[in-house]
Amino acid sequence: MIKIENFSKQYGTGKKAVDNLSLVIEEGDIYGFIGHNGAGKTTTIKAIAGVLDFEEGKILIDGHSIKEEPVVCKQMMAYIPDNPDLYEHLTGIQYLNFVGDIFGVEKRARAESIKQYGDLFDITDSFGDLISSYSHGMKQKLALISAFIHKPKVLLLDEPFVGLDPKASLDLKKLMREICEEGGSIFFSTHVLEVAEKLCNKIAIVKEGRLMASGDMETVIQNHSLEEVFMEVIENGQ
Amino acid sequence: MDSNQTDHISSLRGLWLITKVQLLTSFGINQLKYERNRKKRGRYIGYLLGMTILMCTLIGYSGAIGFGLGYTGMVDVIPSFAIAITGIVTLMFTMLKSSVMLFGFRDYDMLMSLPIQNKMVITSKFICMYVINLLFTFGIMVPMGITYTIFSPEFNGLTILLWVLGMLIAPLIPMTIATILGAIIAAVSSRFKHKNLLSIIMSYVAICGIMIYSFYINSSGQSDAAFLAGVSEFGNQISAKMNMLYPPARLFESSICDNQIVPMLLLITISTVWFLLFINIIAIRYNSINTRIKSQNTKLKYKMQELKTSSPLIALYKKEAVRFFSSVGYVTNCGIGIIMALILSIISVVKGPEGMLSMFADVEVAGLSGIMSGVTCAIPFFLSAVISMTCTSAVSLSLEGKSLWIIKSLPIRTEKLLQSKILFNLSLGIPASFICGTLLLISFRPDSFFEGIWFILTPIVFSFFSSIFGMLINTKLPIYDWENEITVIKQSGASMFGIFGGMLIGIIASFIVMIIGFAGFAEMAAGGMTILMAAITVLIYKIVMRQNI
């Protein structure tokens, strides 16, 4: 579903934020992407989402290049950044309706989805309020709902659990599994290694922009915990 | 050292530290110094270029007025003229800015959590506005001061010292008056549910009040008769008008013209006492005003209602509309063009064409009758210049700010996004063009149908031009990493070029049409110029549609 081939990104004349990264995320995958701060996780996710321009490498979504056919690719995807700065001047429902309009979600299906996910995340009551009055967690929930209402095939999430309450975290994990069971793909970054270990079937570890390890969770961690493997990779580069 | 003294020193140190950060942010100094990205550096250089053009225009205009006054023997009028114009410009500028810079600003939480007195936070914000206003003051008062030294026979070193002191003190009183007005508006509107709407209306009422007041003072009196009675009498009358328009001008005038230190000391004392009084009064209610402004009215419980669906273009357009009307700073700064056009058009209907024209210059209106045809043909271009000042497209892309990721990650083509922003500006400009054009048509009664048709068509063409030109400018000079939206709305290169670019082109076009009109080809000139602008607009549109964000 997502194919990254030799992707590199350099900001200005400094060192490469991502260096020659190649990954394949298949249908049904919940692919965790871990690394220390500044390792290149956000850069990679932004490039896949078509938010960040890049010169080196190829990124294909269901066979379409994000550089050459961005609209086709984005129609299949939903992206949520680590800190969702939403349109503060809109109300929650106005924002969701706006996203529904852009993706052309049918009226009845839209209303049903909004109600369903709004109730699930306990936020329906606040839909009439301005987003500027929302807490960080509520904004995160609203961004998640906006991602789910158009039924994306690919979900790109940057630190999705930050700011969510325990119930919402649990609900999000359930939803992620459901999407993958229905053939969707999820690529997400996290610093919570326990969550990644339990939730993901595949994992990639990056260090200073370079892919250090990737593949099936069992193959990567073998008889260790993900935390042990991660520390080994980060400290010894193996 | 006792604890009071220590507190005082740390307060001053706190004031210096936060003021330094505010200035670094407001003027983009850090970006220029440390930004490695060429594109981003280019944007700030564009801003500086825009500011330079604006300053050059201001300097040229002020120098020309000073020279004109000196040349016609009215050199003693220059000081009061200089300080009165500075006063009005500062008053208008601060009025538009104080609502966002002093109240409800983005870094409020951060600043108020620091161990610094409220007074220091207000003072630091005020110093930032003062520095910006000081630039405008220099732009007006330096060239006027130079023309004064050229023409004044009694000029000496003391005059220069007094003039410099006057320049430094000039923005203080109008700034505090405008800020008090801003504070009253913010305080009153914060008590109501629709505080933004109320704040926008009250701000416009205050701005229109200042405009009408200065026009009224300028147009009252028997200027033509005075002119006939002698230049000296005419000069005295202008001086009296300026002193009436802006009372502190009298102190500055007597200090400069009589080389007296006492009136200047009096002006400095009044300004300083007034300023300190202002800071202390505002500080009392500062927290509560800001808390009310920043607090949101939340509804009890939202019940799902039937959703209205739209096409992507209309959805983007609606988003633009909500963004515009929800920000007091955005509406008051970017909507001012159409409001001014409406006021002028209504005045034109009420007072007649001659009455409106006499508000801009002390001219013998009866003398205009011979050249009225040329003037009439230039009116649609003058109207276009004013309407072009409403240029939301020049800043709307930058206003996406940190939410830019939404637009970038959604499946929409860049063209559609830019079209929605152009469309929104058009939805302000076109109705204003129709209404104002029709009012001016009623007022000026052009001789023929073809002369009249440009009253409507020309401003519409200019609305398209300014919307599309503004969009081009914003795609070339975007700023997304702002903390306070006023940085984008008022202080960015894109807003300078967008707002003043269209206005300047409109004014130049009106002069060209007027000159050709005097030669007897008024209709042809108006038509030709409008068609030329339409062609340029189509060309720019094609360039805009190829832009990427």
CATH architecture label name of chain A:
3-Layer(aba) Sandwich
Shape of chain A: globular
The percentage helix of chain A is: 25-40%
Helix segment count of chain A?
A: 9
What about the largest sheet of chain B? Answer: none
**Regions of chain B with pLDDT < 50 over 5+ consecutive residues?**
221-230, 362-366
**How many domains in all of chain A?**
1
Amount of helix of chain B: over 70%
Please state the oligomeric state of the protein chains shown: heterodimer
The total domain count of chain B is 2
Write the SSE topology.
The complex is a heterodimer of chains A (238) and B (549).
Chain A: E1 2-10, E2 16-25, E3 30-35, H1 41-49, E4 56-61, E5 64-65, H2 70-76, E6 77-80, H3 92-103, H4 107-120, H5 136-148, E7 154-158, H6 166-181, E8 185-189, H7 193-199, E9 202-207, E10 210-216, H8 217-221, H9 226-236
Parallel strand pairs in A: 3-8, 3-9, 6-7, 7-8
Antiparallel strand pairs in A: 1-2, 1-4, 4-5, 9-10
Chain B: H1 3-26, H2 29-34, H3 38-71, H4 77-101, H5 108-112, H6 118-151, H7 157-169, H8 172-189, H9 195-219, H10 223-229, H11 231-245, H12 248-257, H13 261-294, H14 312-325, H15 328-334, H16 336-358, H17 372-388, H18 393-396, H19 404-409, H20 414-444, H21 449-476, H22 485-489, H23 493-518, H24 522-544
Helix pairs in contact in B: 1-6, 3-6, 3-23, 4-6, 4-8, 4-9, 4-11, 4-12, 4-15, 6-7, 6-13, 7-12, 7-13, 8-9, 8-13, 9-11, 9-15, 10-11, 12-13, 14-20, 16-17, 16-20, 17-20, 17-21, 17-23, 17-24, 20-21, 21-23, 21-24, 23-24
